Amino acid sequence: MSDWRNRETRDPIARKKARHLSPPARSRAMHAMSARAAQGRFVLQKCCDCGEITYPPRDACPVCWGELTWQDVPAGALVLSETTIRVSTDLYFRDHLPWRMGKVALDAGPVALAHLHRDLATHDRAEIRLMLDRGGNAALFAVPPNGDFDMADPQFREFTVPLKGKTVLVTDARSAIGQAVVTALHKAGAGLIIAGIQAPGRQSDTQLAALQLDNVQSMPLDIVDQVSLAEALSKIAGPLDLVINTARHVRAGGVSIGSNPVEMRRAFEISAIGMARLAGACAPMLAGRPHGAFVDIISSQALSGAADQSALSAAEAARLSLLQSFRHEMRSSGVRVLSVFVGPVDDEDHQTMPPPKVAPARIAATIVDALQQGREQSCVGDVASDAMARWLDDPMLYAREKNL
Amino acid sequence: MTDQSSNTALSGLIGEIASGDLRVVDLTNILSTDFPVIVLPSEFGQCEPFRMETVSRYDGNGPAWYWNNISMNEHTGTHFDAPAHWITGRDVPNGTVDAIPPRDFIHPAVVIDIADESAQDEDFIVTRAFLENWEKANGQIPEKHWILLRSNWSKKVGTLEYLNLKDDGAHSPGPDADAMRFLVQERDCIGLGVETVGTDAGQASSFDEPLPAHSILHGNGRYGLQCLTNLDQLPVFGSVIVATPLKIKGGSGSPLRVIALAPANGE
């Protein structure tokens, strides 16, 4: 167990800190850019007629009024100038002053205003990240190139979910994914990791290596049960920063062939209703934190019905829908809601499936990376990435192809 | 009008309960969401635990009233097993909870203490020889009685030792087939009541005759009571069990409140 003396202290008399959001999006084109930023892509608009690449987002080409399309472009840039903002009327920025911004010449063409990492100066080469700000809108953030930079930059931290010293709740921590997530969080420096163990418990559970790590505390937790959830949350020492939900119920079975209503109900209870119950119970706790976040692992089967895993794909589709609702609700509090899509996992749930399967440790590594990069949506492994690409391209075709 | 004198037995009973000469002992565990349910090998369907969802609690969903939706398996918490629960009892007449004659809900009990044996051996098996030795020391088991195995297992409720799941399955005491045949065929018992999560021992699915308590009890139209508590408050002879399962249409069993009436002086 970690030493409670090292935990964050709070002034009991101080008035509750109101948390403000970055200014809202101004146009539909800006929302389209944010939707792509959520996937970790660096995109700009390109004119279908004259080929001009343009920024900021617009509804038509500023050169020829042609139609614009989103395109992934090189992320390199040159810092042309810098400035430090010391006064602002915006409530969010007033809390974070001084704030550095700079003019950057994008390798893709346009010159843009970007938030500047503290290690960047005029004439430096930079990599531009398209990141989601506290309000969930895309913003350009310039960091030193090659990915080797100080993540503790206070401005950069505002766009990410720091893990060091944070208190994290992991559901279904006994599962292969759960154990891997606990281990990865421990390695990433989380302060206290609450490992939720689903009933029935085995006496040997406590022997699991992941649950014996420093700063890891196991407790019974069944997200299907409101009493269990309330009891577990009440036992967490100090404020809760982060929830990572790994719980799900993977069973084969169709609708009219090989169906099992008991298993189907269970899948919905855990994936959909359980996730919503967990999110609802944790939301007020996360909303009070400076970097609150909720991470949910979703099967890529959620994107379209799978005949051989009909209950799983339906329950995960419901989960995806509920997660989107929850994300919308959390926007106003600045709590980040991250989704991590996974294909078949190399665990006991997928013994009969042929490779490729993703290793639980890879899922855990992606979660840590998504938090540290502030990426709202991630896909782990080829199966999930391919499913997402095909679904984004043509959902109806994907639904047909999936069940050929 | 009923003749007053025809009620002497009942009024005597009520009088003795009121005076405390008869104790009413609650043999029921609290039905809570964390009360363990039996765990079967993973190839089988599983027993749902007790779940409770608040509909309203003097709030916007019901300003003046408090109530919950509940769900569970028929075999969750302190519960009753009807003959139809087991394949051997599938053709027993009136074998489901809605059809069991109500007079079977009230029967005397004999309490057999296996607490020391179970404390020493978590897989303690009640054999015919053990029962015959018990009878030599305590007297013959009368017919038409509930047989209650007092293992003190209920004192483990709330700990992992209650289900006592290990890599090779559950470990808890219970009877073997010869003991069950003895109780059913030679002692004509009403049923078997236990403190553990099942009438059978934790490892009973590996016995030469697997799950003998379920198989033999229900095949002969007898009943089971599981997850009992407070058996240590009952005398060896002389208590009466009141166990009335819910009237679930075609039900295989039911959670229920089990009470015992017992003389205050212990015997």
UniProtKB/TrEMBL annotation, chain A:
<feature type="region of interest" description="Disordered">
    <location>
        <begin position="1"/>
        <end position="26"/>
    </location>
</feature>
<protein>
    <submittedName>
        <fullName>SDR family NAD(P)-dependent oxidoreductase</fullName>
    </submittedName>
</protein>
<dbReference type="InterPro" id="IPR052513">
    <property type="entry name" value="Thioester_dehydratase-like"/>
</dbReference>
<dbReference type="Pfam" id="PF00106">
    <property type="entry name" value="adh_short"/>
</dbReference>
<dbReference type="InterPro" id="IPR012340">
    <property type="entry name" value="NA-bd_OB-fold"/>
</dbReference>
<dbReference type="InterPro" id="IPR036291">
    <property type="entry name" value="NAD(P)-bd_dom_sf"/>
</dbReference>
<dbReference type="Pfam" id="PF12172">
    <property type="entry name" value="zf-ChsH2"/>
</dbReference>
<feature type="domain" description="ChsH2 rubredoxin-like zinc ribbon">
    <location>
        <begin position="36"/>
        <end position="67"/>
    </location>
</feature>
<dbReference type="InterPro" id="IPR022002">
    <property type="entry name" value="ChsH2_Znr"/>
</dbReference>
<dbReference type="InterPro" id="IPR002347">
    <property type="entry name" value="SDR_fam"/>
</dbReference>
<feature type="compositionally biased region" description="Basic and acidic residues">
    <location>
        <begin position="1"/>
        <end position="14"/>
    </location>
</feature>
UniProtKB/TrEMBL annotation, chain B:
<dbReference type="GO" id="GO:0004061">
    <property type="term" value="F:arylformamidase activity"/>
</dbReference>
<dbReference type="InterPro" id="IPR037175">
    <property type="entry name" value="KFase_sf"/>
</dbReference>
<protein>
    <submittedName>
        <fullName>Cyclase family protein</fullName>
    </submittedName>
</protein>
<dbReference type="InterPro" id="IPR007325">
    <property type="entry name" value="KFase/CYL"/>
</dbReference>
<dbReference type="GO" id="GO:0019441">
    <property type="term" value="P:L-tryptophan catabolic process to kynurenine"/>
</dbReference>
<dbReference type="Pfam" id="PF04199">
    <property type="entry name" value="Cyclase"/>
</dbReference>
